[in-house]
Fold this sequence. Notes:
The complex is a heterodimer. Chain A has a single domain (2-278), classed as ABC transporter involved in vitamin B12 uptake, BtuC, CATH 1.10.3470. Helix content of chain A is 74%, strand content 3%. Chain A is built from eleven helices and two strands, in the order ααααββααααααα. In chain A, α2 (39-55) packs parallel to α4 and α3 (61-87) packs antiparallel against α4. Chain B folds into two domains: 2-253, no CATH class; 255-348, no CATH class. The longest helix of chain B is centred in the C-terminal third of the chain and has 33 residues, at 315-347. Chain B has helices at 2-27, 31-56, 64-82, 86-108, 113-133, 163-167, 171-195, 197-207, 209-214, 219-245, 255-268, 275-290, 297-311, 315-347; strands at residues 137-141, 144-147, 155-156, 247-248. Chain B has 14 helices and four strands. In chain B, the strands form two sheets. Chain B has a two-stranded antiparallel ribbon with strand order 1-2. In chain B, β1 (137-141) and β2 form a beta hairpin. Chain B is globular. Chain B is mainly alpha-helical. Chains A and B meet through α3, α4, α9 and α11 of A and α5, α10, α11 and α13 of B.
Amino acid sequence: MDAILQIIITGLTLGAMYALASVGLALTYGTMGMFNMAHGVFMTVGAYSAYAAVAYFGLAFPVALVTGLAAGAAIGAVTHLLVVRHMLKTEGFEINIIVATAGVAILSEDLILKIFGAYPFRQPLQLDGTFRVGGLAVTYQSVGILAAAAALVGVMTWILTQTRFGLAIRATAMNREAAMLMGVKADQIYLQVLVIAGLLAAAAGIMISSLATLSPQMGANPLLRAFVICVVAGLGSVTGAGFAAIALGLFEAAIQYYYGVRYGFPLMLALVIIVLIWKPAGLFGQQDVIRS
Amino acid sequence: MSRFDELQKHLLYALLLFVLMAILPLFVTQRYLLGEVITFMLWVSVALQWNVLMGHAGVFSLGQMLFFVSGSYTVAMLGSYLGVSPWLSIPLGAAVAAVAALVIGVACLRLAPAYVALLTFAIGFMILTLIISESECYITTGGNCLTFWGGTNGFSQFPDFGFRQWLRGSWLLGNYFTVLGAFIVSLVSSIVVIHGRLGLAFRAMSDSATYAASRGINRTKFQITAFVITAFFTGMTGGVHAAHFRFAGPSLLELSTMMFILAMVIVGGLKSTWGPVLGGVFMMILLEVAKSFGEVRNTLIGLVLVGFVLLLPKGVAGAGSSILAALGRSKKMQNTAGEEHDRQAQNA
């Protein structure tokens, strides 16, 4: 019983972080058909900015949190203005954008390494202490992560489904030209989408670094999970990504508990490939897959 | 008919390059430079295969280093554990890579391009994590623990080509010509695929996917074929790389190695035949010059990738041919303008 409870708590914490990481990725793919290889670096930037705000400037916890999120949003905007904007609607966009964002990723990762070095700093944004549920010690940190992730994903869902702004995003995703004819400024929507994705990634980065440590490559692992989650959910499906993240988080926690940390990701990947053989467009995907 | 001419023309160029590279050691005698040329040929060989796959077959695979590593590790592990000579294990490594490609290809290539990119990337990363995180010692030598897959340090000091015994001081030349052989094999195979029947099918599919499919061209089947062929030669290159450097380790699977080769492909230009060679020359010289400015390798690779995709999406080869085309067009326009003039003169 304790084992199952433990798996559920770890799995939900993992799932919540994965959800934050993958929802932004799914949103970018859904609206612009762009696969963002730099999404992992957005996480790293958010985590390091929050760290720097505390370690170098001695800012208070909430201010540092906001700084981290703002940094994530900023790098999203910069990526759009310097790179993505010039490539939209060019030939071979789908593949070229993967190459370009991969370039942004390796470039930014190297810059972070140059600025902060490779030392594994501890993320100062942490909630200390534990409380007991049954026979289990639960950290406040896990609860904080769950609450923050739920709040952010909730707000995102509300924006997407209930506001005019969300309507504009969904309209652009469905049909860019038609949306523009209705007066939606598509270019501006793309910028806003990348800002939101950057912000969510930064939140995920801060959480992930609070459980492990900071490192310039810290974005790689969660990015891979986010990729896999988005693929299994069907690229572009935002709600699907949320559900798939929680499910895969629980699955990974169970595998880690019974077989060891090493096999968590490989078995998750194997499961995903099996799902894709059965449903090539992913579980929630609607887009047609070219079959021959 | 013209297809064969095209194929023969490129094969002739390949022969020329082979002769040039073969007489190069007469002029380049410095060990360091010769070593750099060897490195160049190895990476360009990988880039050539990647270009076939990405530029021509339309498979956006990010798992090429996985096939490279299949070859390297086969050579390294057979050499370390059983003392097998690389001459035997290189073909075996290539076969291992081809089998891996067949399995991954059957599982993934049915999907849309972005899915293929992500899954191949994820599989490569997974293998890297599995190699690094292994903790059980397989053999212990002198207090050093060696895990079965080599762990973070990988394998070193296993048997190489054996030129040290035959050629003594000039063993590097032996390695040079072995690598040159592998490079030319890889180059010729890429030319044959691009300008042969397989390439024709790919051109048909990229011109009109629907029409090609309705004429009975099976996209997945052709793509898996290309995937396996390129993996075979990538794996062969990996094996040669391992035997030359006497090293194989997880650093080969790291993102920066892959990005370096991807930059060669992108700089050279997708959809070209000779792009990777040009891109390889560009990247090797650029990074060699940059060495004197400190640790800027990854920054530069990132800048080059972003810059070329933004400014020269067709790469050096594409830019060259579009300049030639533009020149040709302006000449033609002058001609038509001339004819127009003649006609007007006649009317008058």
